[in-house]
Design a protein that fits this description.
Order of helices and strands: HEHEHEHEHHHEHHEEHH
Oligomer: single chain
Structural class: alpha/beta
CATH class: Alpha Beta
Helix content: 40-55%
Number of domains: 1
Largest sheet: 5 strands, mixed
Distance between the termini: 22 Å
CATH architecture: 3-Layer(aba) Sandwich
Strand content: 5-15%
Number of helices: 11
Shape: globular
Length: about 300
């Protein structure tokens, strides 16, 4: 699991540990958070391991999955049944560049997940499930983003992967556009992986909807962070937002298979639904796949 130390992931990992107490959890993340969470779960009697993983560094993802493959092959871990790719990031501009030369939002929300799944795709026991956390900001309308996030602006994936893909890349609006566009790309990628993964290995997209109080916007200014944590949580009393506990609980249920969802599905909170019409484009999905294979080739070997 990625993204287990904060927000809905922190809720979900506790729910997973409680639901299947003998399952061995492997947490991928950065220190000191991931080590502290592992220690906490271990102190409560849950089998747990952690691997240092920085999703902004695809080499780090490669090393972590390599170590995981080694432990699985040596039977130091039980068979791999579930991967929860929950980590996500939103930046205050679209010009933050990773050490690999990629735009940071696209790197974390799309490229890292592609490397993670591709590096593990032949390690799964059957049946198994991969869950990728997405966002309904990909719809691009007021109903789904309350006017806070611009609609996606699809470009050639080679451009989306680099800084400067959107007008005025140094602005918060460009950063939010990069976020909604990356989440549309993540849904496209789920569809394409669903066509290619081995039979019995399912992959689904999970949308928690707007969840105030998470650290998703931790790169934002102080006023925006205050609004997310202290003001906007009131929206959880309306259909426009989801409370942290509910969103994390749904994520755990999807991962556990308690919510029946065929491979390639979009799960909106607790039920299978339809993502935006623009997210169903097989030609675009194939082009995205081909671009990601080129961009991540050094990290897939």
């Amino acid at each position: 699991m990625t993204g287990a130390t904060r927000g809905i992931g922190r809720v979900a990992v506790d729910r997973l540990a409680a639901a299947v107490p003998d399952a061995h959890l492997v947490l991928l993340g950065r220190n000191p958070g991931v080590a502290a969470l592992s220690d906490d779960l271990g102190a409560r009697g849950h089998p747990v391991s952690w691997l240092e993983t920085d999703l902004l560094d695809l080499g780090s993802v490669r090393r972590a999955t390599g170590e995981l493959r080694t432990r699985l092959a040596a039977r130091q871990l039980p068979p791999l049944r579930t991967v929860v790719a929950n980590a996500g990031m939103q930046f205050t501009s679209a010009r933050t560049e990773t050490a690999d030369g990629f735009e940071a939002t696209f790197a974390v929300n799309v490229l890292a997940n592609h490397v993670l799944v591709r590096r593990l795709e032949d390690c799964f026991a059957v049946p198994s499930r991969i869950v990728v956390t997405v966002s309904d900001t990909h719809f691009g309308d007021f109903k789904h983003n309350l006017g806070m996030v611009p609609a996606p602006r699809w470009r050639d994936p080679e451009l989306l992967a680099r800084t400067g893909a959107f007008p005025r890349p140094g602005t918060a609006a460009a950063g939010r556009t990069a976020y909604s566009t990356s989440k549309l790309a993540a849904i496209h990628l789920v569809h394409e992986h669903a066509r290619r993964l081995p039979a019995g290995v399912d992959i689904v997209a999970y949308n928690p909807a707007f969840v105030p109080g998470t650290d998703l916007a931790r790169d934002a200014n102080a006023a925006a962070r205050f609004a997310m944590r202290r003001v906007l949580p009131v929206l959880t009393r309306t259909p426009f937002a989801t409370g942290m506990a509910a969103a994390g609980g749904y994520l755990a249920d999807v991962a556990l298979g308690r919510i029946a969802a065929p491979t390639g599905s979009y799960v909106d909170r607790g039920q299978v639904s339809r993502s935006a019409a623009a997210s169903y484009d097989a030609v675009r999905e194939l082009r995205l796949w081909d671009a990601l294979e080129r961009l991540t080739a050094p990290f897939l070997r």
